[in-house]
Amino acid sequence: MRTVLWGSLRAHSRRYVTAVAAIVMSVAFMVAVNALSASARDGLRSDVVAQYAGADLVVDTSADDSRTLDRLIDQIRAVDGVEGAVVNRLGFVEVEARSARQLMSVGTVAADRDLRWQEVADGVAPQRPREALMAASSAKRYDVALGDTVRVFGQRGPVEVAITGFTTSPGGTLGSTVYVSEQVGSRLGDVLTADDVSVRVADTTAAATGKALRSAVGADRSERPVADREAWVDSAVAEATNDVDILQRMVLVFAAISAFVGTLVIASTITTVLAQRRRELALLRCVGATRRQIVRSLRLESLALGVAASTVGVLVGWGLGHATVAALRAWTAGISFGAVSLSPLGVGLPFALGVLVAVGATVLPARRIGRLTPLEALRPHETTGLSGGAGRIRVALGTVLVSVGGAGLVLGTGDLIPVGLAGGMTSFLGVVVLAPLLVPALLRLVGPVVGRSGVSGRLAADNVVRNPRRTASTATSLLIGVTLITMVVIGTASLRGSIDRDLDASYALDVGVVAAGGPLAEGVGDRVDGVDGVDSVATLPGGEVEMDGHRVLALEVSPAAARIVHGDTVVPGPGELVIGEELSTALDLSYGESARLRTTFGELDLRPRGGGSLGEVVLVGPGVLDELGVAAEPRAVWARGEGGAPAEQVMADTATVARSAGADVAGSMVQRTWIGLQLDVMLAVVVGLLAVAVLIAVVGMTGTLSLSILERSRENALLRALGLSRGGLRRTLAGEALLMAGVGAVLGTTLGGAYAWLGVRALTEGLVDDVAFSVPWLQVAIVLAATTATGLIASVVPARRATRVSPAKGIAML
């Protein structure tokens, strides 16, 4: 049987290409993820080691506030043997650079050169308290030059610091955008948190100094730990790499999806290939091979296939890991990557999964083949095996899988994503089990339509339902691909649409100029309209009114102004009053059932609600100011940014116009753009990760279609012998491919839509209210058309090959 095994592998190697490709891609994906994660962990450890390289001891201050820290650092520096100490502060605060406020990470830079870990790439290190460093990449992004002054906003107001140098030091646990002095960090207050204090001691008194330090810092809180540098670095790395591990697990979820898809594709391919070899294997029984030998030969064949494909997958994944790390090093700044390495588990687990998938996919087909009697070689057609007990078991099993998986999907929408993922896989597996019954039933409904096209159409309609198992095997590959693609398309559109509606409610106004002290100067609107990146503007009239005892500026929103903002959340309806977030915060307002606007000429009760960042104003509908007797004057200019315009630059240029007019700038274009960018990146990553699974499915789809046509060589030859022309045979095979592709596309679109809706519900649970189901019909139509075309194209080459085989030769084939 060894001779038969190797001969079989050589003879049928081309038919296993699809299965091999699926295994290689699945294994390579998992290996590459593990290699990338190991590199990220190694790089992070190197960063942390560098940041604490000058410290001998580290004091844990994670539970201390700013005042306690100021007192504690004096106690530490007063200990005999302590030569230097620095409080490592870190936090996200508002920083104004070139007239534009940004939320940036702010850390501290040590005055002690031995404790200063930042490397200055350009300029000099800070020498005075009001000097600071800035990350070179951020300085370029915000157009900050050496010597420029930036304002850092803390608890006690803004602090101006001069940028004296740019640093390219990596992130680690202390990495920031701006590094201020210890004095400025203390003045900013509790907006910055301090997890630790790095301490440098004299080498000759290290042991005694450490003991004295522990005694000094534990005087008021005995549980404050002091650790040596190595122990602290190990703890910090373990905590920091937890994020990498979480990201790795998230990515491996997509790897699991790819492996699941690969398993289905491999099983479908091997089932089709073994069905083609049914007569060959039965003839081996005729010449003396036992059932056990046949089954063992098939299992050894799949084992050899799995080992070879998994080995290639490991090598490809290793290469992809190196290529990805090299690309990330070139494209990202401030993130370090270490050496690309793989643990035994990182190689062994993907390799074992690839082998197990190949062997497991052969179990049921091999058992079915092993039951063949020698006389089976004389039978012209394979029985479907869907009637009687086998059919009832299939229906029962498929129903149970769909029901259990559906329950898991529903539970997954309650913030239990792993349960939902397992439910989705289980339910889809149930659909695959039911496919030999479901797909032919659908084909019987549409078959008569194709049958009206002539003899080739009738043959195609009859052929696709003659062998339900073979048809289902082919359609399953189509189903997998279409379901995944449709799920991504509809899920992305629904998620983006829902989050865009939330952004419209929270960040409706891109940018605005508001004059609180009097009317706007003439020409301000034209100057704002001339700012690069501004698409359209509108001038809003307004005036002073009294609202529940507070003097406020009321702006009247005209239809032209309503077109400037995103959505209609900030547009007041009849009887409504919209209050800007800044005004609500300044006056500590709460929204009741009504708010009363009053002037010397009248008063009006309106329903108040919030409207996001609009400035310290209230918005009213057209005619309200006239009703209150207010002589309205131009008090604000609203602007809408162009798509893709640099938000920071637009805000900075508009702020320049506002300052020259004695007005304030408002709006949330920067926040909206930043959130939109993060969303686009996240969706791109998700689509990119799912693309691996989609690619596997497409490979399986084309491969299985081709194999299904080759499987029917004898049938096609017999049709040719009975008078069917080559053109008629090509039309018949094309009709079969179109029928299977069409049914698979429609069924896959339906399943993909359901999975997309449930997936979006699970991902946005607790984050987005009123998630809307959005179907991009044009994209869905393109998917349907592309799938149908793929089915047709996949049949072209096998059909040409089938028509070139003479009837006599085709009938003689095994």
Descriptive report:
- With 814 residues, the chain is α+β, with helices and mostly antiparallel strands.
- 58% of the residues lie in helices and 16% in strands.
- The chain contains 25 helices and 19 strands.
- The strands form two sheets. A six-stranded mixed beta barrel has the order 2-3-8-5-7-6. A six-stranded mixed barrel has the order 12-13-17-14-16-15.
- A hairpin with a 2-residue loop joins strand 12 (534-547) and strand 13.
- The longest helix is centred in the first third of the chain and has 48 residues, at 229-276.
- The chain is flat and about 100 Å long.
- The protein starts with a helix and ends with a helix.
- Mean pLDDT is 79; it is low at 381-385.
Q: Short summary of the structure?
A:
By secondary structure, the chain is of the alpha+beta class.
Secondary structure topology:
Blueprint: H1 2-11, H2 17-51, E1 57-60, H3 66-77, E2 82-97, E3 100-108, E4 120-123, E5 131-135, H4 136-141, E6 149-154, E7 157-167, E8 178-180, H5 182-188, E9 193-201, H6 206-217, E10 226-228, H7 229-276, H8 278-286, H9 291-331, H10 344-370, H11 388-412, H12 417-451, H13 455-466, H14 468-506, E11 511-514, H15 524-529, E12 534-547, E13 550-556, H16 559-562, E14 576-579, H17 581-587, E15 595-599, E16 602-610, E17 617-620, H18 624-627, E18 633-641, H19 647-660, E19 664-666, H20 669-711, H21 713-721, H22 726-763, H23 777-794, H24 796-804, H25 807-812
Parallel strand pairs: 3-8, 5-7, 13-17, 14-16
Antiparallel strand pairs: 1-9, 1-10, 2-3, 2-6, 2-9, 4-7, 5-8, 6-7, 11-18, 11-19, 12-13, 12-15, 12-18, 14-17, 15-16
